[in-house]
């Protein structure tokens, strides 16, 4: 059995005709390529550090390992850049797919709005966690904290 995917039908050809102002679709097209190149470096750097260069490899990844990385400004900025680019790249890609395949304007507006809300929530929460994460909060029950907090 084979499935046929209908040809994409970009819904807004008239929008760009004679339209003034910055060409946001072109900017989005360039952003997808530029962010893709940067993501290759960030994602493979992330995997290489965690899995190849850290003694113990994947078995060494635990709460303390992540807590240690998130205490270092270098990795905070690496992770937050990776988060922002992956979410903006992924959500802009999803927006393109919706524009190609969703023909009813109301459904398209709802779908693109939902993608935007999901992206904003993930970016806000992810950024907040990256910069505020504390593996040993002072007010917490010591029984719930990792062992290394006792020596701090
Ligand atoms: C390894 C890094 C990555 C590279 C080099 C890359 C590259 C690209 C490029 C060049 C496009 C544009 C394709 C086109 O316009 O036809 C694209 C589209 C897309 N990317 Fe990525 N990407 C990467 C990572 C990601 C990640 C992490 C996500 C999800 C969070 C993602 C989700 C998407 C989606 C949803 C599209 C739209 C697909 C479409 O238009 O058919 N990509 N990617």
Give the CATH H-level superfamily.
Answer: Fumarate reductase/succinate dehydrogenase, transmembrane subunit
Assigned CATH architecture: Up-down Bundle
Low-confidence stretches: none
Rg over CA atoms, rounded to whole Å, is 21 Å
Mean pLDDT: 90
Give the helices and strands as they follow along the chain.
HHHHH
Number of helices: 5
Write the CATH fold name: 3 helical TM bundles of succinate and fumarate reductases
Strand content: under 5%
Binned, the helix content reads: 55-70%
Shape: elongated
Ligands in the model, by name, code or SMILES, are: protoporphyrin IX containing FE
- Strand pairing plus helix content: what structural class? mainly alpha
Instruction: Summarize the biggest pleated sheet.
Output: none
| Tally of strands | 0
N-to-C span: 62 Å
Please indicate the count of domains.
Answer: 1
- CATH class value: Mainly Alpha
Subcellular location: Membrane
GO molecular function: metal ion binding
Organism: Agrococcus sediminis
Protein name: Succinate dehydrogenase hydrophobic membrane anchor subunit
């Amino acid at each position: 059995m084979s499935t046929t995917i209908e040809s994409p039908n970009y819904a807004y050809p008239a929008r760009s005709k004679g339209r003034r102002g910055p060409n946001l679709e072109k900017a989005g097209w360039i952003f997808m390529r530029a962010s893709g190149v940067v993501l290759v470096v960030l994602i493979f750097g992330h995997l290489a550090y965690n899995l190849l260069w850290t003694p113990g490899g994947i078995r060494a990844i635990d709460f303390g390992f992540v807590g240690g990385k998130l205490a270092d400004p270098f990795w905070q900025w690496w992770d937050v850049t990776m988060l922002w680019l992956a979410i903006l790249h992924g959500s802009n890609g999803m927006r393109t797919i919706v524009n190609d395949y969703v023909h009813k304007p109301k459904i398209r507006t709802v779908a693109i709005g939902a993608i935007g809300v999901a992206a904003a929530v993930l970016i806000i929460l992810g950024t907040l966690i990256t910069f505020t994460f504390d593996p040993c909060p002072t007010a917490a029950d010591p029984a719930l904290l990792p062992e290394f907090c006792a020596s701090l």
